[in-house]
Write a sequence for this structure.
């Protein structure tokens, strides 16, 4: 190597070293992002749900329509799937749960037994479980029913309050609206 080659290589290395020194110090730089498999627990409707990590959920994957019609919870390491249509049919078959004009509507013991029967339909071993597991399962089923009922009530009232002949904004009807029309009797009782 010639003297000019050495001096030019040393000047090039001096330029690179001065650039690295002029950049922000190591402590001021943010740490590199890590892709951890951790999940966040998110409070939703009074219950805690696990949020799927972002790198595991893909927007390209198709979502099945049946996933929107049921809710899956995990209690004591066992999955519990609540089908909305089945829950609606079971509640409709027991009017003392939802009909305020029913003579046994205010009978707490009878209604608790009816709810236990409904829950046993989704989890046949429900009565054998511990008290805390029973409470988690019962809370999940009750919350699911309240969510279904509240959505129907909101849509029903919106349809009743719409002015006659107005086109209004186009709203997709609730999937279970027709199945829940038995509840309109209770809504007219409250008005």
């Amino acid at each position: 190597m010639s003297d000019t080659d050495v001096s030019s290589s040393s000047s090039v290395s001096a330029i690179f070293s001065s650039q690295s020194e002029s950049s922000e110090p190591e402590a001021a730089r943010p740490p590199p992002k890590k892709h951890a498999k951790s999940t966040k627990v998110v409070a939703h409707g009074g219950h805690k749900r696990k949020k799927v990590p972002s790198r595991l959920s893909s927007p390209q994957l198709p979502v099945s329509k049946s996933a929107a019609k049921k809710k899956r919870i995990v209690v004591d390491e066992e999955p519990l799937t609540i089908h909305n249509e089945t829950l609606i049919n079971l509640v409709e078959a027991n009017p003392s749960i939802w009909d305020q004009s029913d003579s046994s509507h205010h009978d707490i013991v009878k209604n608790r037994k009816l709810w236990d029967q409904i829950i046993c339909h989704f989890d046949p071993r429900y009565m054998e479980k511990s008290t805390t597991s029973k409470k988690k399962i019962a809370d999940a089923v009750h919350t699911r029913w309240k969510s279904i009922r509240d959505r129907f009530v909101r849509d029903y009232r919106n349809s009743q309050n719409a002015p006659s002949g107005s086109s209004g904004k186009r709203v997709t009807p609730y999937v279970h609206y027709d199945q829940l029309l038995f509840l309109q009797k209770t809504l007219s009782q409250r008005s």
Q: What stands out?
A: Confidence is low (pLDDT under 50) at residues 6-24, 36-43, 52-68.
